[in-house]
Structure to design on (990 residues):
């Protein structure tokens, strides 16, 4: 169903080799799933000792890794799997010293060792710096951190990957289920990786999958100051994880965790459901296949949710159940001490039933969903010699989903078909008409339908206005991402100057297959003869809306959308005395492919209509997306440093491969019109968005980031960081009416409220000859344009501190920020926790939605004040307590009123500047306690009991305010933070 990229790598091999030959510059290859150890071995006078052999061993590393100190006493051990290591230093005289170190994902652990002379026959030695920090990384000019399993497992975090985001300093806390949090960008600007695989939903940028935390070993986070390593193009933050792996010992665990409905506080929202029970079953096992050579790890994960629903107006509502089964297997093989290979496969099946029944809807309207996630990974690293190393990574991601009615109807739409008026609830999703005061003609038509399909009202009589029959839409939507990357690193030393050089190449293809059809005749509504057909003036009594794809004999192809991306990164870390300079650049190229046109010569557009044919829609070349990454760090003291960084990002997420595709006009909705007997009297298209052309010469959306800060370690156990960061996003692409700048200007409409101010932009079309193109190949009057003056600005001042001593660990951060602009992709629909198109939303879609219509102000993701603190304490009796505390400002909102602009729809038509109001601030405290019991020889076996209590004070703060002034509930919250809830777990370990 998707083509292999691997066989298409060869044409670019020459490009890669030329780039290596032309410019061999970079930093350690921590773009893949590794970290490294570096340091210096010196004598008592601080002079480097040459020729010291450093051997690194770890339970997670088959075999060992070896390095030798250079003339300055420096050494480096690259491409190490994250974990705990023992370092053995063998001096030139044959004596040995050992040290312990922890390697964190995509971080450098610095271990500098001083060898002192013998005193009274004893050799004294001192570890000067051990730069391993569970979260706060202070080695370079970036905002990058890592956290290991032992740390987040000791905290009340949660079971899902999404829950880990709450640990990132400076990133807003959100309980949205689809859109991501803001960290100086919108909720679709973040990048989510699981085992190095991008699991962001292709074309939408949200977190598509539901990976869990149970077999995550470490997490890394980059939210600013990125280098040209790791192919980071994120306009927000980037988070990555690495899974657990086998060791030379057999280990395993099995656990059961439950959140009973009786252990949760009642919600303050008045929702029509209760009695939710959640359960999690987890098991894993790992160990050696070949001692010191080949390890395995395997796991099973089964979360379930059951919700007993209350009755609605029609009576009992089906219970909701979600059941997910996930399997994971991983092999780690070291054919030699210098080569390490990993292969893994993850399969997850998620089934949900009994969703989506409204209060005035029969049980037949329930919906279900089925989703399958498969992730395949093959990666390897090769330490070629003391100065060079290389790695590769191939990944294959497939997320296939189907959503639709629990009840499938046998009725089939057809040209000339009819409705069975005695069984409208088996024809589709029927809206029951309501009786009207003083309208006997309407009531004569409606009352028999109410008597048959109505619900019993409070007065005991049958009422109209409800929904009967099965849900109307069947949605089959599959996403695929296939990628390949390689990297090469080389270290050069010239006296007191060293270069860590890197070059990398990455290529990926994303593919979406979409087909939507209707269940039966789709949505059926009553017209009652009040409208007539356009031809023949025949009274219309019923109208059915269904997707054209439901007419099975038309042979309508699914919409296939593709996007390809190629990236080349070059980077150099230059160390000179107390200074470290990062000099890098990344070049990117993106190509979008739509469906429905075929390239031809001899006509104006260069295309002709060809349904089902893949065509090149838009290409953004390497020279248009050059992303410099420049940083400097000054280690002016042993325990303090200053840093500065500049980076440009071109976010890769875009929905235009589908949103602008020509074949979208084949997947339109059709209106079928029927007479009083249910016989078809007409068939009309209710055309959806058709293909769109691109404005010439537009610059791709980009984010410029400026960062300055300082690191200070005032004592061995306390590390602090303070920084200022600014992000400026410009050159936003959006679909908009081609002649909007003319038609909506104050020149053309001097008396209309909200017209375009003079001087905003040239009053001319985006594509001057659009009508000539449309005469040739059709298409929309809307085009993809770089909308004038679109911007977002983000300013942030943050203070972070970390304390670690004996059995204590605490991390705290406070962030003041200001997120403002006029292009708010988090505020582009009536309900915003959705996968919305990037580049084709409601923004700039007509009067009241243009950027000059009071869109400038505080953006939805703005949180002025954000404080996070979390940590744990380990007791002497094998127990521990963990805590997570949060305070953040509320969510900005503004009043919407479409009547100001002449529309009945209020959606994103602002009546006051963006972010004029703000919801209540939210605070929360989560706690947990864990008790371990060990038994057997050498405590080989263990039992763990755990309790997690979330939102201790039951602070159900409201947010997602209803902004439409003409809709019920104006100014009231539509969402609330989850109530207090308790989870209990029992785990067996060996």
């Amino acid at each position: 169903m998707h083509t292999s990229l691997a066989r298409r790598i060869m044409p670019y091999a020459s490009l890669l080799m030329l780039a290596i030959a032309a410019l061999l510059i970079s930093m350690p290859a921590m773009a893949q799933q590794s970290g490294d150890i570096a340091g210096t071995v010196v004598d008592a006078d601080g002079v480097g000792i040459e020729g010291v052999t450093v051997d690194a061993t770890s339970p997670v590393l088959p075999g060992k890794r070896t390095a030798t100190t250079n003339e300055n006493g420096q050494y480096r051990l690259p491409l190490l799997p994250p974990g705990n290591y023992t370092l053995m230093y063998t001096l030139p005289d044959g004596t040995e010293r050992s040290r312990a170190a922890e390697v964190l994902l995509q971080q450098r652990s610095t271990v500098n060792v001083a060898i002192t002379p013998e005193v009274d026959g004893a050799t004294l030695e001192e570890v000067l710096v051990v730069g391993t920090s569970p979260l706060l990384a202070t080695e370079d000019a970036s905002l990058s951190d890592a956290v290991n399993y032992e740390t987040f497992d000791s905290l009340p975090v949660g079971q899902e990957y999404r829950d880990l985001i709450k640990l990132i300093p400076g990133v807003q806390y959100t309980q949205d289920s689809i859109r991501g949090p803001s960290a100086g960008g919108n909720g679709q600007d973040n990048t989510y990786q699981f085992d190095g695989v991008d699991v962001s939903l292709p074309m939408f940028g949200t977190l598509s999958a539901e990976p869990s935390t149970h077999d995550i070993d470490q997490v890394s986070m980059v939210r600013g100051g990125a280098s040209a390593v790791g192919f980071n193009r994120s306009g927000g933050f980037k988070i990555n994880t690495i899974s657990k792996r086998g060791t030379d010992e057999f280990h395993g665990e099995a656990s059961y965790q439950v959140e009973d409905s009786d252990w949760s506080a009642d919600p303050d929202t008045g929702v029509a459901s209760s009695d939710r029970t959640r359960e999690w079953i987890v098991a894993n096992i790992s160990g050696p296949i070949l001692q010191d050579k080949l390890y395995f790890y395997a796991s099973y994960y089964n979360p379930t949710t059951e919700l007993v629903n209350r009755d609605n107006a029609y009576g009992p509502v089906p219970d909701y159940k979600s059941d997910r089964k996930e399997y994971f297997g991983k092999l780690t093989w070291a054919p030699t001490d210098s080569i390490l290979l990993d292969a893994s496969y993850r399969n997850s099946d998620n089934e949900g039933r009994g969703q989506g029944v409204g209060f005035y809807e029969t049980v037949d309207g329930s919906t279900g969903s089925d989703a399958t996630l498969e992730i395949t990974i093959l990666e390897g690293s090769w330490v070629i010699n003391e100065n060079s190393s290389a790695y590769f990574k191939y990944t294959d991601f497939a997320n296939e989903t189907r959503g639709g009615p629990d009840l499938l109807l046998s009725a089939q739409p057809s040209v000339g078909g009819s409705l069975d008026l005695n069984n409208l609830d088996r024809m589709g999703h029927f809206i029951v008409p309501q009786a009207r005061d003083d309208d006997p003609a309407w009531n004569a038509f409606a009352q028999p339908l109410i008597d048959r399909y109505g619900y019993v009202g409070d007065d005991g009589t049958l009422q109209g206005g409800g929904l009967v029959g099965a849900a109307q839409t069947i949605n089959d939507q599959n996403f695929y991402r296939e990628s390949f990357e390689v990297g090469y690193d080389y270290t050069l030393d010239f006296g007191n100057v060293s270069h860590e050089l890197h070059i990398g190449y990455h290529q990926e293809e994303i593919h979406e297959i979409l087909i939507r059809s209707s269940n039966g005749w789709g949505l059926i509504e009553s017209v009652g003869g009040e409208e007539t057909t356009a031809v023949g003036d025949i009274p219309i009594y019923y109208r059915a809306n269904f997707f054209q794809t439901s007419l099975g004999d038309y042979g309508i192809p699914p919409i296939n959308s593709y996007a390809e991306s190629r990236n080349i990164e070059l980077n150099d870390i230059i160390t000179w005395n107390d200074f470290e300079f990062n000099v890098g650049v990344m070049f990117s190229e993106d190509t979008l492919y739509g469906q429905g046109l075929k390239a031809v010569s001899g006509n104006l557009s260069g295309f002709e209509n060809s349904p089902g044919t893949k065509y090149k829609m838009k290409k953004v070349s390497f020279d248009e997306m050059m992303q410099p990454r420049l940083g400097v760090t000054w280690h002016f003291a042993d325990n303090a440093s200053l840093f500065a960084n500049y980076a440009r990002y071109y976010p890769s997420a875009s929905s235009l491969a589908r949103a602008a595709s020509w074949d979208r006009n084949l997947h339109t909705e059709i209106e079928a019109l029927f007479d009083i007997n249910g016989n078809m009297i007409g068939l009309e298209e209710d055309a959806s968005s058709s293909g769109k052309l691109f404005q010439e010469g537009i610059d791709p959306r980009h984010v410029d980031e400026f960062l300055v800060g300082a690191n200070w370690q005032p004592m061995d156990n306390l590390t602090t960081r303070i920084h200022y960061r600014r992000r400026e996003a410009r050159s936003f692409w959006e679909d908009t009416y081609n002649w909007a700048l003319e038609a909506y200007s104050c020149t053309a409409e001097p008396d209309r409220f909200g017209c375009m101010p003079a001087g905003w932009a040239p009053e001319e079309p985006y594509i001057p000859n659009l009508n000539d193109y449309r005469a040739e190949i059709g298409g929309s009057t809307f085009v993809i344009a770089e909308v004038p003056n679109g911007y977002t600005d983000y300013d942030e001042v943050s203070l972070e501190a970390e304390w670690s001593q004996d059995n204590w660990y605490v991390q705290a951060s406070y962030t003041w920020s200001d997120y403002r602009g006029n292009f708010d992709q988090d505020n582009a629909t009536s309900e915003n926790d959705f996968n919305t198109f990037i580049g084709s939303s409601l923004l700039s879609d007509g009067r009241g939605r243009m950027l000059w219509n009071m869109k400038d102000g505080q953006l939805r993701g703005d949180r002025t004040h954000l404080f996070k603190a979390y940590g744990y304490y380990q007791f002497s009796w094998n127990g521990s307590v963990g805590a997570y505390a949060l305070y953040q400002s509320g969510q900005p909102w503004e009043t919407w009123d479409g009547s100001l602009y002449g529309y009945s729809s209020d959606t994103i038509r602002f009546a006051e500047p963006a972010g004029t109001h703000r919801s209540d601030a939210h605070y929360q405290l989560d706690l947990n306690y864990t008790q371990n019991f060990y038994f057997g020889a050498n405590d080989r076996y263990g039992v763990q009991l755990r309790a997690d209590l979330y939102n201790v004070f039951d602070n159900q703060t409201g947010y997602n305010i209803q902004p439409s002034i003409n809709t019920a509930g104006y100014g009231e919250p539509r969402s609330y933070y989850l109530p207090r809830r308790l989870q209990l777990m029992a785990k067996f370990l060996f």
